[in-house]
Amino acid sequence: MNSFELDTFLREHTFYEKFISSNIDPTNTNSLKSFIKNTKFDEYIMRKFPLPKGISLEKFFIDFNKKTTDVILNRMDDIVFVSHPRYTKTPEHHHNYIEMIYVYSGEFHQTVNGKNIVMKKDEVCILDTNAKHSIEETSENDIIINCIMSKKHLDDILLNRLSENDLISSFFIHAIYQSSDYNDYMLFKSGASEKLNKLMTDVLCEYFDTSPCSNEVINSYMIIIFYELLKIFQKQSNSENYYLLKNTKITDIILYIQNNYKDATLASVAEHFHFHPNYLNSIIKKFQGNNFTYVLQEAKLKKASFLLKNSDMPVIDVARNIGYENTSFFYKKFKEYYGCNPTEYRKK
C-alpha cells in the first residue's frame, strides 16, 4: 500500500458509517434488516473499523452507541489502529488503555477533562488510561486515526527504549502503574512536521497492508514516532515558556516567593506563573544564581531574622511561623546563612 492507496482507503465509507448516514432507527427491526441485506459489507474497508467477533450485524447496530473500541482492545495484544467513525458524536467516556489520536485530515473537536480541544491536520493527542473525553460529530473530510496501545505493549516495547526521555516516559509510567489516580493528556502541535506526517503515513500503510514482518516494522516505526513527538513537544514547550517569560519579570517571581514563603513549593509557583516546574527552576537559577530551593529558604530565613530582631517571639515559634517544623533543621540552616544560631543573632 502506498500513500495514494492509503488515502483512498481511509476516505471510503465503512459499513458502520453508511449505517450512521442512513439515519435508520436501529430499533426499527424491518428497516435495519433491509439496510443490512441491501448494503454491501466490504471486509477490506472494514479493516479500519473491525466489528466485534461473535456478534451479528443486527445486534451490533442495535447497540451501536456502545464503546466499540473497548471491544476491539480486548481482542488485541499490542497495538491497533482504528479509523474513528464519521458523522456521529461520542459521549464522555474513558478507557483502560493508552490512546493516541492523530488527525490525518480535517479537524477534530473533543473535550478532555472538561477542556475543549481543537486539533488540526497532523496534530497528535495522547490520552492516558483515565482521561475523560467526549467527541464532537465529524464530517466527510475529518479522518481521525485512533492508535490504541495496551499497557503490555508500552511496558514491553516502548518504555525500555524511551527510558532516557523523562517527559514521555514519565507520562506512560504514570498511566501504566498509577492509572487509578492519573488522568492526564499530552497535546502535540505537530501540524508543521513533515517528518511526522511521513512516519504516520508509513506506519498506517504497514498496518493496513501487512507483511510477514509487519509487527516488528510497526514497533520500530512507533519508537521513531515517539522520539519525533518528544522533539516536537520540547520545542513547543520552549516556545510557550519563552512567551510566558517575555511577559513575566523575574522580580515578580521572586516577590511572589517572598510573599508566599510559608507554603510555596516549586509546583505551586510554577502553576501560578504557568511554567513547567523544571523550566521555572532553570530560569531562577539563570537569573539568581541559585535554584528555587535556595531562594525559598533565603526568603524564609530573612523573615526569621526580621522576627528575631523585631519581636519577642520564641525561636521555636519563629521557626514554625516561617514553615519549619523541625527546630534543629531551622537552627542548622540559619547558622549556615548568618554564621550564628538564632539565639546569638537576636542578642547582637
TrEMBL record:
SUPFAM superfamilies given in the database record: Homeodomain-like, RmlC-like cupins
Key words, A-Z: DNA-binding, Transcription, Transcription regulation
Pfam family, one: Cupin_2
Database matches in Gene3D superfamilies: Homeodomain-like (1.10.10.60), Jelly Rolls (2.60.120.10)
Domain HTH araC/xylS-type: 251-348
One Gene Ontology molecular-function label: sequence-specific DNA binding
PROSITE patterns membership: HTH_ARAC_FAMILY_1 (PS00041), HTH_ARAC_FAMILY_2 (PS01124)
Protein name, as recorded: AraC-type DNA-binding domain-containing protein
